[in-house]
From TrEMBL:
Keywords: Membrane, Transmembrane, Transmembrane helix. Residues 1-28 are annotated as: Disordered. Residues 12-26 have a biased composition (Pro residues). This is Peptide zinc metalloprotease protein. Residues 1-11 have a biased composition (Low complexity).
Length: 439
């Protein structure tokens, strides 16, 4: 899965610049200060402009007046001159450009303030976990129009074979392709890990072809283990150019599935293994349409619809339905882009329906199957004894079968620890422009 979101200060998870052990104090910004900004990208997204540093992968969404103020600051005007220029005639209160400028410093967008260097310590963003990957662009033709056309043909071939040849349609029992159910499921778990890793590698390579680095990490969506590629750097590109890297994982799945089904139709290769692989890939593609899990399709949808904070806005609308919002939540909802509000009004029903299905799956299937696996592993180990081969086979198979659940639990625990640490930190700065008295 991929993430692509423009948060108030940074997209969570966002590849942030590393913080030095002894950060340089941020210079003080005054009304008469002149700022020298780092090279920033600007991309229109709905009624907002996404601004950021491609080298650190940090982006924020600001209104049009913010982009205007940014241009004037970049041109060398003082903060007070910019404030006078962007404040509408006849306005009773000036636009608070001073607070905006100070936020830019804290976000790490400012190189110097009045010839005083703004060090890396001016950006106090929490460190985001994950492996930063910035490979050189290779095999760019794979991610060209010809590559997209080939993947599209593979997807069409998959649909055709599933419709015309009923024998190659995936069946739930295809998972049992080895001598015992335990061996089959354990092997399928390993195959799923490998294919999921290659799916994410397709995202990374497609982004690298456009000069965008990525961050890989293991995370979760609800109680599902997820391999995630953070492509926040795509905000530096227009929406149309973001789509390729976002769908690259599904394109890989379509190509693999087309090859597997073609081999089955031709009667070539181990049919039981190919049937299991087909089931894995069909499931992988279907899961991407679960947009409530912020899947690849969700990322494409938000890019095409011009949204920047859709998930946050949706949750705030739902919370307002069931309880009163806190002052901070009300302020966040009021600051949501109109485009996000318009989409969230219908997307919230999709979100609720998806969460209901996920809750049903958790109670009816996930918990019972986990308990069954634990019971099977306990009984197998006790009955076999540590001096037998069956004992160690059951141990290895049990670890493999339970590894997705165990890793999900570890990730959830890590998130709890991170939230507690974040609660003790000062709130992250916002690059929003406010109307009010300067100070």
């Amino acid at each position: 899965m991929t993430t692509l979101d423009a948060g108030a200060s940074a997209a969570p998870p966002t590849p942030a610049a590393p913080t030095p052990a002894e950060p340089t104090p941020a210079p003080h910004v005054r009304a008469g200060s002149v700022l020298r900004l780092h090279p920033l990208t600007r991309t229109t997204q709905g009624d907002r402009v996404v601004v950021g540093r491609a080298d650190t992968g940090r982006f924020v969404a600001i209104p049009a007046v913010g982009a205007q103020a940014l241009d004037l600051l970049e041109a060398g005007l003082t903060v007070e001159a910019v404030e006078a220029a962007v404040t509408p005639a006849g306005s009773t209160e000036p636009v608070d450009v001073l607070a905006f400028a100070r936020s830019l410093v804290r976000l790490g967008f400012v190189a110097e303030v009045d010839d005083e260097r703004a060090g890396a310590g001016a950006s106090p963003a929490p460190t985001t976990r994950g492996l930063v990957v910035a490979p050189r662009a290779r095999a760019r033709w794979l991610f060209s129009r010809w590559g997209a056309a080939f993947a599209g043909l593979c997807a069409a071939a998959v649909v055709a074979m599933l419709v015309v040849v009923p024998d190659v349609r995936p069946d739930a029992l295809d998972v049992f392709f080895l001598g015992t159910p335990a061996r089959s499921l354990a092997a399928l778990t390993v195959l799923t890990y490998v294919l999921a890793g290659l799916h994410e590698l397709a995202h990374v390579m497609a982004a690298a072809a456009l000069g965008v680095p990525a961050r890989l990490r293991i995370t979760r969506r609800l109680y599902f283990l997820t391999f995630e590629t953070n492509l926040t750097g795509l905000w530096a590109l227009p929406p149309r150019r973001r789509v390729g890297p976002l769908v690259a994982g599904m394109a890989f799945d379509a190509v693999v599935l087309a090859v597997v089904l073609a081999l089955r139709v031709a009667g070539v290769g181990p049919d039981a293994l190919l049937a299991a692989l087909a089931l894995v890939e069909v499931s992988a593609i279907v899961v991407q349409f679960f947009v409530f899990l912020r899947s690849d399709v969700y990322a494409v949808m938000t890019a095409v619809l011009g949204c920047t904070h859709l998930q946050r806005t949706t949750r705030l609308l739902l919370r307002r339905t069931v309880r009163r919002l806190t002052p901070d939540e009300r302020a966040a909802l009021a600051a949501s882009p109109p485009r996000d509000l318009a989409v969230a009004r219908w997307y919230r029903y999709v979100h609720v329906a998806g969460m209901a299905v996920a809750a049903w799956f958790f109670v009816v299937l996930f918990v019972p199957s986990t308990w069954h696996l634990l019971s099977w592993m306990r009984d197998s180990l006790v009955s076999a004894g540590p001096t037998t081969w069956a004992f160690y086979e059951a141990l290895v198979l049990g670890v493999l079968l339970l590894s997705p659940r165990a890793l999900t639990a570890v990730v959830a625990l890590r998130e709890v620890v991170d939230r507690r640490r974040a609660a003790r930190r000062p709130p992250a700065s916002s690059a929003a422009l406010r109307v009010g008295p300067s100070h």
